[in-house]
Amino acid sequence: MRITRTLGTAALLLGLAASPAAADSSPSASPSEDGGAPTTAGTSFRTATEIGQEQQATASGSAGDYLYWSFPADAGQRPTVKATVKLPETHAAETWRIDVYDGLRRRQACQYGAQTRTAAPNAPTVELACVLRTVRAWSEPWANDPLPGTYYIRLTAVNLPTSDLGVPVSTEVRVDSKDIGGAAAVDGSLSEPLVPGVAMKSPADEEDSDGGAVLSAIEPEDGWSSGWWSDRWVWTGIGGVLAALAGIGGYALTRGSGRPSRVPPTV
Predict the structure, then answer these.
(1) Which of 244, 92, 83 is nearest to 167 (CA)?
(2) Residue-level pLDDT at 71
(3) How big is the CA angle at 189 (ends 183 and 192), to the nearest 5 degrees?
(4) What is the torsional sign of CA 150, 32, 99, 184?
(5) Mapping DSSP to helix (H, G, I), strand (E, B) and coil, where does residue 60 land?
(6) Strand partners, 179
(7) Can you say how many angstroms the Cα of residue 75 is from the centroid of all Cα atoms in its chain?
(8) Distance CA 206, CA 41 (A)
(9) What is the number of H-type helices and E-type strands within the chain?
(10) Which of 63, 175, 195, 243 is the most buried (most CB within 10 A)?
(11) Distances 144 to 52, 81, 101, 147, 237 between C-alpha atoms, Å
(12) Cα dist. 256→1, 2, 191, 251 in Å?
């Protein structure tokens, strides 16, 4: 009976421990202020259009232009960037490319995906994709690991024929992320995310504020480093409970039923 009560208590504790992990398992998204998806793209890093994850952005432009968007990615997320370019009815063979840069404007390699594709003559669309490596909470200064902060998307045509320069095109861009969880957890974290616009407030502003850093408006819905919870906590708790149950079971098996009634007590 005692062991049954112990098992029931352990199951309840595991259920309470697992519920926060389930609530934090999906990546957060930051919708635009007006509730609608962006319909324009920037022409440089500084003018990149901010979009949230799980939000599809559209933009019109001309073949040969550089189109830029930016999005937030937090530790433990593995972003996937997808782009679709709608081409005019008549055009020559065109090669389009999508590149992703981190907050330090370092180009990030794609794990897999069609980062560069050539559209056949008169093809209606061309689709591109780039799956980044998992964002780490901390990294060595010399490493090129993806870190929490702003990421930039650059979409453009390369080796474009002269006859197609300036022809109108329309684009669609979407960013999704998969939460990797405790498998990507590391010891350490950045003091601030790698976002544009980091600057200390002026002395005049510090009188009415806490003097913190001024950051870009783009960030995950629950704030940076919102994924502090990982499944490592769950597995650690499960290991501890199993160890306790093993100790209780071993004691119950080895202690026996006590002193037999026919054996007199020891004086």
Answers:
(1) 92
(2) 94
(3) 135
(4) positive
(5) strand
(6) 77
(7) 6
(8) 35
(9) 3, 13
(10) 175
(11) 24, 19, 11, 9, 34
(12) 16, 15, 57, 9
The radius of gyration of the chain's CA atoms, rounded to the nearest angstrom, is: 27
Strand blocks (E) in 145-214:
149-158, 168-179, 199-200, 213-214
Q: By CB neighbour count within 10 A (0-12 exposed, 13-18 middle, 19+ buried), where does 86 fall?
A: middle
Token duo for residue 84: 């679709």
Q: Which two tokens stand for residue 5?
A: 């009560």
Q: Count CB-CB contacts under 10 A for residue 204.
A: 8
**Which residue, chain included where needed, has tokens 């504790």?**
13
For residues 172 and 156, give the distance between their C-alpha atoms in angstroms, rounded to a whole number: 13
CA distance 45 to 48: 5
Q: Which two tokens stand for residue 178?
A: 């998969």
CB 225 within 8 A of CB 189: yes
Write out residues in the chain with pLDDT < 70, as ranges.
Answer: 1-35, 181-188, 197-217, 221-223, 225-233, 256, 258, 267
CA dihedral 242, 248, 249, 252 (to 10 degrees): 180
What end-to-end distance do the CA atoms of the chain give, in Å?
A: 32
